[in-house]
RNA sequence: CCCGCCUUAGCUCAAUUUGGCAGAGCGUUGGACUGUAGAUCCAAAUGUUGCUGGUUCAAGUCCGGCAGGCGGGACCA
């Protein structure tokens, strides 16, 4: 596959790449490193899965994949004691493997390197380069909002920037909520004589309740190891306004999971409502916006799809 | 180190001057209405009132101690 084709593949489904020219250079490298950091989370859900799938795709294209299990970051973000978080990290590692990343994937626990002298030295250097306002702003979409924000909130982004240098990352992949931290890295790493990675941002999934963001703290997600019945119930309870595409979580699941995976979505429908349909992405959008496709039929189709799509994951989770 | 204020349901907060059955909104759950969800309407559930000792027939409320949070002051050779 030529480089142009690889670039197109990587760009597919992303919101932005900063920037494409640099990524092209990275693609000429032998084993360029792509990384994503995740705060250990009680459940790995479809939102996480968007980035994991992108990592998997890049792995297939020859990238070395490093996943940071960001235990200290979670700790700084008030997600629990470091012991609890490390338990969760183990579970998350299993989830990521279940999603199909190969054995060549490096899983790195943050605390294994984030206290080393070279690392803290870089954090301190970054601390002298970053204003408090800038650091706080970079955390707007990432940190828990507290009436009593902690110093931890401004250490967090500095560490994330230092991670990229310590893990020798060529490409940093993350959801759009990471953008401000990533840009901070692009800006400040060169100032401490480190190379800034290419930054790639993927879209955020709306919560099943229609909330801005699917998030484990809000319970508005499909977890990758949810039971079949749970998937059905959750999809059925989901926000899904008739004819509306924008901000519709069920349509988003179709866009981000069905169609990258298969050309058509089978909609099983009783005869009295028009009988079965097989729709391409474009057709789905048209049919749904026109009102010809009822939300309930779409929901049933999506639930069926997800149950099948996540079957391998459930198997892996129970057998490993 | 000193002083003041705060801590009540998952969340935001009520519970007056003067101690008298711990409440509301939001959220959650369930029903009604929709061939989904939401919106709307109806209904329900939920408490170690931060912890602890005391006063009292009776304490969220008064007194003491402790913890956590917030603000201020002091110290600055």
Automatic annotation (TrEMBL):
Q: What is its main location?
A: cytoplasm
Q: Where does L-tyrosine bind?
A: 35, 156, 160, 163, 178
Q: Which GO terms describe its cellular component?
A: cytoplasm
Which residues hold ATP? Answer: 216
Residues forming the motif 'HIGH' region are: 40-48
Q: Which UniProt keywords apply?
A: Aminoacyl-tRNA synthetase, ATP-binding, Cytoplasm, Ligase, Nucleotide-binding, Protein biosynthesis
Q: Where in the cell is it found?
A: Cytoplasm
**Catalytic reaction equation(s):** tRNA(Tyr) + L-tyrosine + ATP = L-tyrosyl-tRNA(Tyr) + AMP + diphosphate + H(+)
Keyword field contains Acetylation: no
Q: What is its EC number?
A: 6.1.1.1
A GO molecular function term, named singly, is: tyrosine-tRNA ligase activity
What is one process in the GO biological process aspect for this record? tyrosyl-tRNA aminoacylation
Chloroplast is among the record's keywords? no
Q: Where is this motif: 'KMSKS' region?
A: 213-217
Family from the record: Belongs to the class-I aminoacyl-tRNA synthetase family. TyrS type 3 subfamily.
UniProt xrefs under PANTHER family? TYROSINE--TRNA LIGASE, CYTOPLASMIC (PTHR46264:SF4), TYROSINE-TRNA LIGASE (PTHR46264)
Q: Give the protein's function.
A: Catalyzes the attachment of tyrosine to tRNA(Tyr) in a two-step reaction: tyrosine is first activated by ATP to form Tyr-AMP and then transferred to the acceptor end of tRNA(Tyr).
Summary of subunit composition and partner proteins: Homodimer.
Which protein, by its recorded name, is this?
A: Tyrosine--tRNA ligase
Please name the taxonomic classification of the source.
Archaea, Methanobacteriati, Methanobacteriota, Methanomada group, Methanobacteria
Designated gene of the protein: tyrS
């Amino acid at each position: 596959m030529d480089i142009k084709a690889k670039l197109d593949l990587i760009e597919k489904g992303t919101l932005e790449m900063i920037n494409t020219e640099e990524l092209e250079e990275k693609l000429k490298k032998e084993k360029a490193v792509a990384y994503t950091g995740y705060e250990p989370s009680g459940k790995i859900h479809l939102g996480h899965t968007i980035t994991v799938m992108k990592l998997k795709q890049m792995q297939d294209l020859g990238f070395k994949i490093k996943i940071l299990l960001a235990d200290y970051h979670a700790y700084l973000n008030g997600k629990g004691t470091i012991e609890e978080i490390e338990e969760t990290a183990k579970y998350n590692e299993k989830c990521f493997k279940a999603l199909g990343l190969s054995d060549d994937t490096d899983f790195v626990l943050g605390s294994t390197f984030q206290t080393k002298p070279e690392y803290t030295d870089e954090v301190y250097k970054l601390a002298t380069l970053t204003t408090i306002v800038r650091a706080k702003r970079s955390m707007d979409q990432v940190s828990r909002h507290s009436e009593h924000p902690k110093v931890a909130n401004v250490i967090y982004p500095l560490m994330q920037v230092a991670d990229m240098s310590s893990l020798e990352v060529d490409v940093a992949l993350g959801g759009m909520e990471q953008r401000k931290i990533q840009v901070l890295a692009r800006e400040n790493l060169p100032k401490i004589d480190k190379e800034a990675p290419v930054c790639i941002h993927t879209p955020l999934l709306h919560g099943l309740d229609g909330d801005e963001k699917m998030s484990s703290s809000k319970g508005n997600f499909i977890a990758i190891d949810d039971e079949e019945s749970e998937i059905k119930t959750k999809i059925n309870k989901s926000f899904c306004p008739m004819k509306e595409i924008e901000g519709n979580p069920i349509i988003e699941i179709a866009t981000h999971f069905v169609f990258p995976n298969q050309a058509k979505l089978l909609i099983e429908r009783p005869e009295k409502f028009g009988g079965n349909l097989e729709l391409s992405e474009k057709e789905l959008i048209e049919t749904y916006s026109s009102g010809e496709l009822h939300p309930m039929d779409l929901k049933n189709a999506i639930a069926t799809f997800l149950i099948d799509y996540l079957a391998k994951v459930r198997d892996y989770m129970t057998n490993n």
